[in-house]
Amino acid sequence: MREKYIEELIKEVLGPRNGSEETIIEADPYTEYITGVIIPKDCKQRELGPESEILNVEGDDRGAEDTDSQEKTYSTLPSELDPRVRSKSFGISFLVKGKDPYLKVCVTWGRYFKEELVSENSHRMDVAETEFSWKRKPYCKIFNLNTSGESYNEITVYEGIDGKVVLNSRGIKVNNSLHIMLSLINELKIGDCYGDKVIESSLYQPSIRVILGNGCKLESIDSEENDELNFIYRENPVLARGHMCSSLWKDVDYQDKFDIKVLWPDGIHFDECREFITCDVRSEFVPLYPNPAPLFEWKNSEILSSPVFSALKLSEMWDETEIKGYFIRHRLSTKFPLLYRFL
After folding, report:
1. Phi and psi of 53, rounded to 5°?
2. 304 lies in a domain?
């Protein structure tokens, strides 16, 4: 039951709610989905000066109409500093170790286009009513990357009369490993950043997925400035990082727990993308962290006498010998050497 709640949450905040070619009626995807929306890089958030009482909507570059002859002053707010502006790019980075690192990359996204729906009333004398819907169109691009050394590449994953979408790839040598950074940038032409143009020029539910080849593998991204955190999470290394999104790698991925049609509908839509369902590293806009419920029953067959996990008993013990005897009696010293050493 919990899996269904999570799937419904993902469809609600990220989408799409009705498959890779869904149709939205009486609403638009820009306001329906609150995450995983990449606007064109030329979009800017503008705000009227402090003396004005009129504010522009997000992404409006036209400015409000000046009914008075008085000139209004605008100030541009960069997206990095204004949470009201959606992301213009996103990406993932990771360390790869191998002789000749080889990456197979799959990039998918969707766009919504406005369609007109005409429905005639039952009375012939009435004028036909016009309604609009938003139809989703999925996109996919698969390519290979040979990153044997430091490099910078710009791969065009889409190009048309309305602009292009590019993936920037950068490789930086770090000791015996290679630091790979992949960034998807929306360079679609938009003109006035306002209304339906923003909706049609934005990318929805984008995804970057990578399969490693030539025997290369992911390396831990440790923070050199914080040895304490590195020690605490030494058994759970961080193998990738997300930029304006989250990142997941195979060891912590949870795709097998949910319906893949919800997590990645574009991967089901395109047959050539199906091999990337199980990938080595990928981006994610709705990250999940497992928090399993603890088991209160003792199921260790090697130790017949189950330990008594009683904080009350331990709190009443003052003598060091008594505390040690408590753990020895339940033979925990062999199973929890670190805990026993400090006691």
Report:
1. -105, 0
2. no
The number of residues making up the chain comes to 343
Whether the ω angle into residue 16 lies within 30 degrees of 0, i.e. cis, is yes
Whether residues 327 and 262 fall in one domain: no
Which residues fall within 8 angstroms of residue 250, CB to CB, at 6 or more apart?
278, 279, 280, 281
Q: What are the tens digits of pLDDT across the range 259-281?
A: 999 999 999 999 999 999 999 99
- Kindly report the backbone phi and psi dihedral angles of residue 164, in degrees, each rounded to the nearest multiple of 5, phi listed first: -150, 165
Is the residue at 9 inside a domain? yes
Are 117 and 216 part of one and the same domain?
A: yes
Residues 149 and 229 in one domain: yes
Q: Is 68 a domain residue?
A: no
C-alpha dihedral sign at 153, 158, 161, 162: negative
- Which tokens go with 186? 């929306």
Residue 75 pairs with which residues in a beta bridge? Answer: 47
Paired strand residues for 45: 77
β-strand 203-213 against 74-77: which pairing, if any?
unpaired
Residues 6+ apart with CB under 8 A from 165: 109, 139, 156, 157, 158, 159, 184, 185, 186, 187, 188, 203
DSSP H helical ranges for 19-117: 29-32
**pLDDT (tens digit per residue) in 284-311:** 999 988 777 777 676 766 555 666 667 7
Residue ranges of E strands in 161-231: 163-174, 177-188, 203-213, 217-219
The total number of structural domains in the chain stands at 2
**Which residue segment(s) compose the domain that 328 sits in?**
311-342
pLDDT-based confidence at residue 175 (cuts at 50, 70, 90): confident
Instruction: Establish if 221 belongs to a structural domain.
Output: yes
d(C-alpha 134, C-alpha 82), whole Å: 28
CA distances in angstroms from 188 to 69, 88, 139, 270, 295, listed in the order given: 34, 11, 14, 23, 52
Q: How far apart are CA 129 and CA 122, in angstroms?
A: 11
